[in-house]
Amino acid sequence: MYSLILSQREKAVVGAxxxxxxxxxxxxxxxxxxxALLICNAVLLSFSTLFMGLRLYTCRFIMRHVRVEDYxxxxxFLLWGISYFVPSVxxxxxxxxxxxxxxxxxNSDLWIYYIVTRTLYGVSIMLTKLSILTLxxxxxxxxxxxxGIYILMAIVIIYSILxxxxxxxACRPTEKYWDFTIKGGSCINWFKVAVFGAAMNTATxxxxxxxxxAFLWNLRTTTRERIGAxxxxxxxxxxxIASVIRLKLLLVRVSPDFTWTVFPTxxxxxxxxxxxxxxxxxxAGKPFLRKHMPWVMGDSQGTSSAMAxxxxxxxxxxxxxxxxxxxx
Length: 328
Prior knowledge:
The radius of gyration is 24 Å and the shape is elongated. The chain is mostly helical. It starts with a helix and ends in a 17-residue tail after the last helix. It has a single domain, classed as Rhopdopsin 7-helix transmembrane proteins, CATH 1.20.1070. It has 13 helices and two strands.
């Protein structure tokens, strides 16, 4: 008797969208990617927290200074840390399940959680890139290269704000973007905005990867020290790989079953943010190891000089000065 009543209740429930032919909606124990999503988020957050702690410890207690780029990175880390709780809530109302396994109509809260995540992602990535570019400014004290870095910073700020807060201008009225009960009004093509943002992220990541080579190539120092400095600064652009993959996933994801298909994109997005933060923290690795585990570093000086320059309170112009060693 109980099974009959349960079966009748299931038949009375309608999914957010009709299931594909040959598939029956499952409202009791549907397949879900929620657990994988939460585990991925927790692992990556733990990893970036470790490196962020390493950087803050090194800056505060070893190098004895905390600079603008450090505060920018702290803000980026804290903002994305807030996003850890967003999928934890969103999975309870359907994120990670097929649309036809979610009792309809779609809860507008699900879309609001998506908006919050996208906004936190965009601002966090922006602050991380500004942190890296602020570090670059300490290597280029004047001339066109410095102007170019400022221009790049402006570009990052403008496109990040436009794509992170596009929900504010995407629809008229604004509430139509997350309130599916509003029938009137109009919305712009959000997919084009998303592709534009992903493409700009990929392009700026590529610039961050090659920019250190451009302004350190003629550095008046030994080849070993020059290469060491390049390696230190180019790590900030390694997130380029994750951004390329995310752009590709965004371009091929055409299924309307967004609560399920968004999973790979969200994972790649999460990896992108955490890798960016980790890469930005790598410059603190050498001073930390030399202080606490000098046997790991041996007697190598190339990258050590580069690290000393990265963390030096005053950095000389790359046109006229040589990279200082830790003994200067």
